[in-house]
From TrEMBL:
PANTHER family: ABC TRANSPORTER PERMEASE PROTEIN, INNER MEMBRANE ABC TRANSPORTER PERMEASE PROTEIN YCJO. Keywords: Cell membrane, Membrane, Transmembrane, Transmembrane helix, Transport. Signal peptide: none annotated. This is ABC transporter permease. One of its GO terms (biological process) is transmembrane transport. One of its GO terms (cellular component) is plasma membrane. PROSITE patterns: ABC_TM1 (PS50928). It comes from Alicyclobacillus cellulosilyticus. The chain crosses the membrane at residues 25-52, 90-110, 122-143, 169-192, 223-243, 277-297. Pfam families: BPD_transp_1. CDD domains: TM_PBP2. Belongs to the binding-protein-dependent transport system permease family. It is found in: Cell membrane. InterPro entries: ABC_transporter_permease, MetI-like, MetI-like_sf.
């Protein structure tokens, strides 16, 4: 009897240990499809793309790929099309991110204080979930020389330009499309951030005689610091990766006169038009480094704790 009582705890420990192993194995089996998909469709292509970035590689003739070393990366600095695309992308980012951030914050502040929040959330968010191709085609008609925008300008006796066929105005036109289609998305993020600010802080400030402007400057904006960091980083990554809008607007050639050529559009053309997949992979990883450095810079500026 005594031996049976002494053996019982050891048997229970062995049972629990075996049960834990079985549960862990079952968990890994359930994770297996997702892990396999991640490796096959994401991690694997990334590693292979990095590998071929050191080769002169074409999918039409992969057997004759030749070692290029750093030539593909060095050629980026003397490639006039890539340099123009990088400059256009930088201008596009500088023009879009501050405006869409300020506009989305303003919209969030307004919607947060009015009735019918659900309606306005849906109304402003609709452009985000609308097909980018459909939005681009719609704006092609709006920016037409005889389109809605120029007709509106004509009411004020202003001669509107040929927006999408003028190198001076083509990129600003694409910027307007981006701001219109993304402000609602970031407005939703700011609304979520505003909900996290306790009402007691505003009530205490009102008792102290703080005006609405001072509350915005010294309470709302500082407490939205992390939200602003998220919005700016997401906006910056999105602008550096812009492709579909400029592809539709320029019919894939980055025109007029290269004014709407962006880095990702240039990568696409190098990879699938020129079939220079090795060089395109080098461009993609160079873009990744730029985005990473800018994200770290934004984190250093906005992501620090006070």
């Amino acid at each position: 009897m005594g031996l049976d009582a002494a053996a019982a705890p050891a048997a229970r420990r062995r049972w629990f240990k075996r049960s834990s192993v079985d549960e862990a194995l079952a968990g890994y089996l359930f994770l297996m499809p997702a892990l396999v998909s991640l490796v096959v469709f994401l991690l694997g292509p990334i590693l292979f793309s990095f590998y071929i970035s050191f080769f002169h590689f074409s999918y039409l003739d992969p057997q004759n790929a030749s070692w290029a070393g750093l030539d593909n990366y060095l050629h980026l600095f003397v490639d006039p099309v890539f340099l123009q695309a990088l400059w256009n992308t930088f201008l596009y980012t500088v023009g879009v991110v501050p405006v869409q951030t300020a506009l989305s914050l303003g919209l969030a502040l307004i919607v947060d204080r009015i009735r019918g929040k659900t309606f306005f959330r849906i109304a402003y968010y609709l452009p985000t979930v609308t097909s980018t191709v459909a939005v681009s085609v719609m704006f092609i008609f709006i920016f037409n020389p005889t389109g809605l925008l120029n007709q509106l300008l004509a009411l004020f006796h202003i001669q509107g330009p040929n927006w999408l066929n003028d190198p001076t105005f083509a990129l600003p036109a694409v910027m307007m499309i981006a701001i219109w289609s993304t402000a609602g998305q970031f407005m939703i993020i700011y609304l979520a951030g505003l909900q996290e600010i306790p009402d007691e802080i505003y009530e205490a400030a009102a008792i102290e005689g703080a005006s609405g402007w001072k509350m915005l400057r010294y309470i709302t904006i500082p407490l939205l610091r992390r939200t602003t960091f998220l919005v700016i980083v997401m906006g910056m990554i999105g602008t550096f990766q812009v492709f579909d809008t400029v592809y539709v607007i320029s019919r894939g050639d980055g025109g007029p006169a290269g004014a709407t050529m962006t880095v990702v559009l240039d990568i696409f053309n190098k990879a699938f038009r020129d079939m220079s997949m090795g060089y395109a992979s080098a461009m993609a990883f160079f873009l990744f480094v730029i985005i990473l450095l800018l994200t770290l810079l934004q984190q250093w500026i906005l992501g620090r704790e006070e």
